[in-house]
Amino acid sequence: RDDTARNIYSHTKSFASTAVGLAVDAGKLNLDDRVVDFFPESVPADPAENLDKITLRSLLTMSSGFNRAYLMAAERRTGQGYPDYVKYMLSRPMETLPGEKFCYSNGDTYLAARMAEKAMGMTLENLLYQHLLCAMDIGWPAWEHDPEGHAFGASGLYLKLRDMIKLGQLYLAGGTWHSR
Question: What is the pLDDT of residues 124-139, one digit of tens each?
Fold first, then answer.
């Protein structure tokens, strides 16, 4: 039934990338911002070569250079990355240069969403609710969280089918919702 919120799995990435776009539009993020500059406390003492070249753009295009699918559901259930997903991701080996090769990974989207949170100074849920969901009559998002309490930007958002469709309509209308 369309009145039941369900896990929308990877469609969650569309909402997380929209949150990133809101932060870019607000002038708080730039596609060339480096992930290491947002989380210097999480950079290992001996970082992988080229870790400092990972940008928001390479995260959004899933071309971070890790070249491996990280933080996927099965691995999270076994504790992969626990307790700090950012520190875990920044400790992964780099296999290619950022921007060079596509590799589908929840880790890339998760890092991009965390950059949006940090840039805007609010949780991913608050960012989306205040700047998008409320205006679209979607309501407060139920969302899977990481061990530290951050919304897992790559998956685990629960929405009704009709609310999922609203994001597509927003994009089809060039970012306009009910003349706004």
Answer: 999 999 999 999 999 9
